[in-house]
Design brief:
alpha/beta; six-stranded mixed sheet; 13 helices; about 25% helix; binds FE2/S2 (inorganic) cluster
Length: about 550
């Protein structure tokens, strides 16, 4: 949600202007809070995108914040005139993928076999009575991403989705990628990231249309760092080579038999039933986390005979390749460029973002903007289209250089600040693409398969759901395979977490399957660097061969 404030403080006659929180309240914008503006809960976080210099200096309660993040209850307007624009961390209109589609599990009803069951009015968890209740019983599934969070409320007796919620991960003040969050959490030492997210989850649960005490179990999918931060574990080791979660290290030392986690909701500061259990899905290895594990369930890999690949493009791209007999997984540190990060006019998938681009025969641009209002920037799917169209119209070469000596391409100049795209933006996207493509080549190489051997290529996640497949193929972001094999499935991770919540059989199946996955460590593959360099160019990725045939 955004707050835009045009003000003249002299008219208010106040020595210290109202806080940003006060202004937001006056505008009817809900800011998360648990401490009623006392500077204690740290939930009223806002990102100031304009007018930072017009605000009071940071208060002691804000010393944990960097850059343009502020606590809205602690920061006041200090100048007499001006414009302040900021966002709360609850941008309800951010395009967050809440559901999945075109998954095989949709067609074959999974048996309903949750850990929480009922015997008359007795509520049992793994057969042990934990409560007495006659009304419906519920569980939560969560996909905890670095950028976004999706929570789904399910009826454990019918499997029906009762409600869901989605919001930006409020841990953004600790950095936009997992390495920054690890660094932040290690230096902070107070588990502020964990507590901030728990505060937001409390609000999400409070808004669900059921008694929170009727929620008896929660299943969490997320990358290794997000999952471990949520459970309050030390994440330092995930940021250091060989990049292992503390659960993996413990397992290697024989101190545990699985990387999955179990904790009580109370210890995780969640307002569920006091005896509710929280189960963190197992991680696969290193940065290939519990979100990738959830995807294994979602695509029903344990029963899959065909050769399938799954690619979830994001700040950290996950790759899975295989079938019921052999599974490989990898993680590519692609960075935030495809989410609009580090791009001059990049922005998330919010209203105002250009999401589709085409170049007309006369060289003019036409585009589609989310929400149909004026364009404010360009999001990931728009960037893919733009690169593809620049190539097609021969305004950019395959090395990412603009023709005609252009330094920047202007997409829209109607509003005060023109929306432009520069060669350095192309460079950021080229490097993100290079990491993804190198990951694809390495995992196929290691598997001994060619792209054309694939039967199904699942594009998971919000970005994969909205990108134009033809554009992605033209710029070489995904293999140039038959379009009929490509399925844009949306949020497979929340689907996998839901399956694990509703079925102990599926949960056990996942625990077993995760042990069989081979983690393909990209950084140690001898061809990685050359694949990366090749992947930075904007050429289609050949369908018939990986670089096995032309590998250096
Ligand atoms: S409202 Fe709690 S810190 Fe601002």
């Amino acid at each position: 949600m955004s707050v835009e404030l045009h003000y003249n403080r002299q008219q208010t006659n106040a020595a210290l202007g109202p806080s940003l929180f006060d202004y937001a309240e006056k505008l009817g914008i809900q800011v998360p809070t648990s401490c009623h503006k006392q500077g204690m809960c740290k939930e009223c976080l806002v990102e100031v995108v304009e007018g930072m210099e017009l605000l009071t200096p940071r208060s002691p309660e804000e010393k944990h914040l960097k850059e343009n993040f502020r606590l809205s209850c602690r920061c006041h307007v200090a100048a007499d005139f001006g414009i302040v624009r900021c966002y709360t961390m609850r941008r309800g209109d951010l395009r967050i993928e809440r559901h999945a589609l075109q998954l095989p599990v949709r067609d074959q009803k999974s048996p309903l076999d949750p850990a929480v069951t009922r015997d008359g009015d007795r509520i049992l968890l793994d057969g042990v009575e934990i409560d007495r209740r006659l009304g419906p019983i519920h569980g939560l599934a969560m996909d905890l991403g670095t950028t976004t969070v999706v929570v789904r409320l399910l009826n454990l007796e019918t499997g029906e989705i009762v409600a869901d919620a989605a919001f930006e991960n409020p841990q953004r003040f600790g950095g936009s990628d997992v390495m920054s969050r690890i660094h932040y959490d290690t230096l902070d030492g107070t588990r502020l990231l964990q507590r901030t997210l728990a505060g937001y989850l409390n609000h999400a649960v409070a808004e669900f249309p059921v008694d929170p005490k009727s929620i008896y179990e929660m299943v969490v999918a997320g990358n290794s760092t997000m999952r471990d931060l949520f459970f309050g574990l030390n994440v330092y080791s995930i940021g250091q080579s060989p990049y292992r979660s503390i659960t993996e290290l413990d397992m290697a030392e024989g101190r545990r038999t699985t990387t999955s986690l179990v904790e009580s909701a109370r210890r995780l500061l969640l307002p569920l039933h006091p005896k509710a259990r929280v189960y963190g899905l197992p991680i696969i290895s290193g940065h290939v986390g519990a979100d990738a594990a959830a995807c294994l369930l979602a695509v029903d890999l344990a029963r899959e005979e065909r050769l399938v690949a799954l690619m979830d493009i994001g700040t950290n791209t996950e790759l899975i390749l295989g079938n019921k007999n052999k599974i490989l997984a990898a993680s590519c540190p692609a960075g935030p460029a495809f989410e609009g990060g580090k791009i001059t006019c990049g922005m998330p998938g919010l209203p105002g973002a250009i999401e589709k681009v085409a170049i007309n025969a006369d060289g003019s641009m036409r585009f589609q903007v989310i929400g149909d209002g004026p364009a404010e920037g360009i999001c990931g799917s728009g960037l893919i289209d733009l690169l593809s169209e620049l190539l097609r119209a021969e305004r950019m070469n395959t090395l990412g250089r603009f023709h005609h000596g252009d330094e920047a391409i202007v997409l829209d100049a109607k509003n005060g600040a023109p929306i432009c795209f520069t060669e350095s933006d192309v460079n950021e996207l080229a490097q993100a693409k290079g990491a993804n493509v190198a990951g694809l080549h390495v995992i196929f190489d290691q598997y001994g398969a060619r792209f054309d051997d694939l039967d199904v290529f699942y594009l998971a996640g919000g970005f994969g759901r909205h990108l134009n497949v033809s554009s992605a193929k033209r710029i070489g972001l995904i293999p140039n395979i038959d379009g009929a094999k490509i399925r844009q499935v949306g949020n497979a991770s929340i689907e996998g977490a839901s399956l694990a919540l509703l079925s102990r059989t599926r949960r056990a199946e996942l625990e077993e399957m995760v042990r069989r996955v081979t983690h393909c460590r990209l950084e140690t593959h001898p061809g990685f660097f050359n694949y990366f360099v090749e992947g930075c160019q904007f050429n289609p990725v050949a369908a018939l061969n990986t670089l096995q045939d032309s590998a250096p």
